[in-house]
C-alpha cells in the first residue's frame, strides 16, 4: 500500500514537472513569435494621402563567431565575438546580427574602421566603423525603442515619412509570407515606420523581412524606378495595434 502511495506521488510530481516544462516552452515560444502574428487587418475603407515609393529589403543574419573582425561596443570594448570580414560588413549594413542565439544591434560608429568593406559594399562607407550592443529583442531594434517586426517594420527617411507612420501598400495585400514559426499567411498590406538607416532617403523605404534574405514581396525590386503607391493610414485603431506590436515584450 505504501509503495502504491509513493508511486502515485511520484507520478503526480512528474506530471507537474512536465506541465511546468511545457508551460515554459509555450511562454518562450509566445515571446519569441508574438510579433509575427496578426496579418489579418481589414483593408482601409478609403485610400488617401498617397505616396510614390520604391523599396529595398533588409534582414538579421545568423552567423557563428568564427574569428576575424571583432565586434566592439561604442566604448571600443570587445564584445567577445568576431566575424569574417564579409560577414562583419553584412551585419554592419543590415544593422543587426544573431550570434549564438544572441542578437547584437547597431549602437553607433567608432573613430576608426575595423575592416575594409569596399569589396562587399562599396556604397556603404560607414560600414567598417559600425559598433554593436546586445539586444533583448528577437531580431534587433529600430528607433525610438521599437523592436523590429518581420514583414511589418519599414525603415524610412524621417524627413519624408515620420517614425510611427502606418503605411498601407495595396501591392502587398495578399502576398504570401512565411512566418518565423513556419505558418504561411497572406499579408494584409500594412507596415509601420519604426526604423531608419544609412542610404534611406526621400521616397525610398527598406522593408524588414526577419532572418531570411529571401524577400517574398514582388514589388520590392531595389530600383528607384520600380515605384509603387502607398497610403498613409490615419485609422487610430490600426495605428495603435501596429505601434503596440513594435513595443518590447
Briefly say what this structure is:
The protein has 249 residues and is an alpha+beta fold.
Largest sheet: 6 strands, mixed, barrel
- Total number of distinct structural domains: 3
Strand order of the largest sheet: 1-13-8-12-9-14
Shape annotation = globular
Q: Output the CATH class name of the largest domain.
A: Mainly Beta
**Named CATH topology of the largest domain:** Barwin-like endoglucanases
- Kindly report the oligomeric state of this protein: single chain
Range of strand content: 25-35%
- Return Rg in Å: 22 Å
> What is the straight-line distance between the termini?
50 Å
- State the helix count: 3
Q: Architecture of the largest domain in CATH?
A: Beta Barrel
Order of helix and strand elements from N to C terminus: HEEEEHEEEEEEEEEEH
Name the average pLDDT. 88
**SS-based structural class?**
alpha+beta
Please give a structural write-up:
- The chain has three domains: 1-36; 39-58 and 150-245, Barwin-like endoglucanases; 62-135, no CATH class.
- The protein has helices spanning 2-33, 85-94, 236-245; strands at 50-58, 62-63, 69-72, 78-83, 96-99, 102-109, 130-135, 153-155, 166-168, 176-178, 184-186, 190-195, 204-208, 228-232.
- The chain has 249 residues and is α+β, with helices and mostly antiparallel strands.
- The model is unreliable at 1-36 (pLDDT under 50).
- It contains three helices and 14 strands.
- The strands form four sheets. A six-stranded mixed beta barrel has the order 1-13-8-12-9-14. It has a four-stranded mixed sheet with strand order 2-5-6-7, covered by helices on one side. The chain has a two-stranded antiparallel sheet with strand order 3-4.
- Helices cover 21% and strands 27% of the residues.
- The longest helix is centred in the first third of the chain and has 32 residues, at 2-33.
- The radius of gyration is 22 Å and the shape is globular.
Amino acid at each position: 500500500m505504501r509503495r502504491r502511495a509513493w508511486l502515485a506521488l511520484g507520478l503526480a510530481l512528474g506530471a507537474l514537472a512536465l506541465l511546468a516544462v511545457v508551460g515554459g516552452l509555450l511562454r518562450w515560444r509566445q515571446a519569441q513569435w508574438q510579433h509575427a502574428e496578426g496579418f489579418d487587418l481589414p483593408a482601409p475603407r478609403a485610400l488617401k494621402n498617397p505616396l510614390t515609393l520604391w523599396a529595398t529589403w533588409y534582414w538579421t543574419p545568423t552567423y557563428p563567431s568564427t574569428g576575424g573582425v571583432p565586434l566592439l561596443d561604442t566604448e571600443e570594448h570587445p564584445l567577445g565575438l568576431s566575424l569574417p570580414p564579409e560577414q562583419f560588413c553584412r551585419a554592419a549594413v543590415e544593422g543587426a546580427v544573431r550570434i549564438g542565439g544572441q542578437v547584437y544591434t547597431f549602437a553607433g560608429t567608432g573613430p576608426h574602421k575595423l575592416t575594409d568593406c569596399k569589396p562587399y559594399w562599396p556604397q556603404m562607407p560607414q560600414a567598417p566603423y559600425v559598433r554593436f550592443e546586445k539586444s533583448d529583442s528577437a531580431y534587433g531594434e529600430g528607433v525610438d525603442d521599437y523592436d523590429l517586426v518581420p514583414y511589418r517594420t519599414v525603415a524610412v527617411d524621417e524627413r519624408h515619412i515620420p517614425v510611427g507612420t502606418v503605411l498601407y501598400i495595396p501591392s502587398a495585400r495578399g502576398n504570401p509570407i512565411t512566418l518565423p514559426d513556419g505558418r504561411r499567411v497572406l499579408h494584409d498590406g500594412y507596415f509601420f515606420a519604426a526604423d531608419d538607416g544609412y542610404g534611406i532617403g526621400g521616397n525610398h523605404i527598406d522593408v524588414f523581412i526577419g532572418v531570411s534574405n529571401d524577400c517574398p514581396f514582388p514589388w520590392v525590386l531595389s530600383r528607384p524606378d520600380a515605384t509603387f503607391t502607398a497610403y498613409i493610414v490615419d485609422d487610430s485603431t490600426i495605428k495603435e495595434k501596429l505601434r503596440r506590436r513594435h513595443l518590447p515584450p
